[in-house]
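Lab notebook, bench 4. Still working through the backlog of constructs that have no structural model yet. Next entry is a single chain of 328 residues. Request: give me the structure tokens for it.
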Amino acid sequence: DLYDQGYFGRPRGQGLELSLVEAAYLLDRSRIGVSLDGKELDFKAFFQLASSLEKGFEFRYVVYKDLRERGYYVQPGRPDFRVYPRGGHPGESPAEFYVLVISERMPLPLKELIEPVRIAGQMRKKLMMAIVDEESDITFYEAKEKDMSGSMADDEQGGMATLLEDRVVLWDADASRRLHEHGFYGKPVGERLQLSLVESAYLLERGLIQLVDRSGTSIDRRGFMARALQIEDGFDLKYRVYKDLRDRKLVVKTGFKFGTHFRVYKHVAGLQKVPHSEYLVHTVPEDHVFFPPVLSRAVRLAHSVRKQMVFAYPDGDVRYLEIRRLKP
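Model written out:
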């Protein structure tokens, strides 16, 4: 009955094999009894024993119980659970989610998140992150690889620019207007265009601007990159992501006001009515470690301003990871 009616456990011969969280859930509802060495265990004794045997058992139990009480069929799986869509069940329909359970105090290395994200994607599932806070409340997120693409036209030619302190000024009025209107580059200051370091590096690499210092000495791409690295730590990785996004025909502007590296637009048709950006993109190294409270703030902020939170990281090419709130 436990399997046929609730899809608990796995049939083994004439019996049923239950995971520790399944057993705890059923024991708490007086649907099974548990004994050890001839002694019957109550819920408290069993829960304490299971906690000593399985690291993270308490968090998994909280999530398992919550999902069951929401009406889902849940089975143990990788990384922690498989969740079936409402109206579906094991043996009839495929799982909809793979579930990764995390404590709010548990650092989460990027590599340990990417692996289940990719497995879920390969199996055509969604990865549900269930983060359990100190009061055992659960916040659910979906994590997935993101294909970033836009529809901007090719960039216009610029002109001669000068590197000042930590930014570049393009002096020619017509070139400034073209770059700003057609590619949404820089910030107009009068008839001149002030460019950020990443914008300047990109335009310089593509041969769309020429660059000199205050003395009039020419600066090539290698020399500029060396100076930019002295001004801004991690500039090389930040620029790598910026270049990849621009090459994907997206418009990329600073995301400073949102606490991220970039805000990103799929398309900007003109400056009369600039649309809201669709993404907030933050660059992280391949050895990055997420801390759930910081992650929660970033995703919450993106959601509050109607944007998608995307993390960019190097993995051969630049890869993108979207994390968004999920309401099961």
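Notes after review: The longest helix spans residues 57-69. The mean pLDDT is 95. Flag for follow-up if needed.
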